[in-house]
């Protein structure tokens, strides 16, 4: 894939989809979609705890899609003055922590004696997928930290890929 310069039109970066960052972002989008759609399919409005879970899931799902499109279309190279590796590391770290709180909240609010069995099943599944989503954000934080510190590359490759 060719590198996007500040004046060129956006170009689709197919190799991004095969990278660890691209794969993790795809997984986060799918898993985040599962979390908020499973919660949305229940009577979540009757329980305040699920409002927090919905907020976290929807907020990070939307932001993950925005980051995904930014990297897929190589728009991050057009805004080269932004320290993207640092921004992505902070984003993933915050997402990990907030998904941890959403997972704990969701799991603690599941009531096995619910009078609506399908609500119990969906909420339990949402708890599981919130945990898996949290793990994917944690792994992304690790890879983002390595990219931010420049681990796994040398000075020549980091100079070529930064701009």
UniProtKB/TrEMBL annotation:
Membrane among the record's keywords?
yes
Record-annotated membrane-spanning stretches: 21-44, 50-73, 85-110, 125-145
Signal sequence, renumbered to the chain: none
| UniProt-listed GO biological process terms | myelination
Localization in the cell: Apical cell membrane; Myelin membrane
Main location per the UniProt record: membrane
Cite the MARVEL domain residue spans from the record: 16-149
Record's GO cellular component, any one?
A: apical plasma membrane
Q: Which Pfam families match?
A: MARVEL (PF01284)
Q: Which GO terms describe its molecular function?
A: structural constituent of myelin sheath
Provide the alphabetized UniProt keywords: Cell membrane, Membrane, Transmembrane, Transmembrane helix
What's its membrane topology? Answer: Multi-pass membrane protein
- Source taxon at top rank: Eukaryota
Provide the assembly information.
Forms oligomers.
Task: Write out the similarity annotation.
Answer: Belongs to the MAL family.
Q: What is this protein called?
A: Plasmolipin
What is the primary gene name for this protein?
Answer: Pllp
């Amino acid at each position: 894939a060719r590198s996007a310069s500040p004046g060129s039109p956006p170009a689709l970066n197919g190799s991004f989809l095969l990278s660890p960052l691209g794969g993790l972002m795809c997984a986060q989008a799918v898993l985040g979609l599962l979390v908020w759609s499973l919660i949305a399919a229940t009577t979540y409005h009757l329980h305040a705890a699920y409002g927090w879970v919905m907020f976290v899931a929807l907020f990070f799902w939307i932001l993950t899609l925005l980051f995904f499109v930014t990297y897929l279309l190589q728009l991050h190279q057009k805004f080269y003055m932004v320290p993207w590796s640092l921004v992505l590391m902070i984003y993933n770290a915050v997402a990990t922590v907030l998904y941890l709180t959403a997972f704990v909240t969701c799991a603690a609010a599941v009531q096995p004696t619910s009078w609506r069995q399908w609500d119990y099943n969906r909420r339990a599944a949402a708890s599981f997928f919130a945990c898996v989503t949290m793990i994917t954000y944690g792994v992304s934080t690790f890879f983002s930290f390595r990219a931010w510190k420049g681990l796994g590359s040398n000075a020549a490759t980091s100079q070529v890929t930064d701009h």
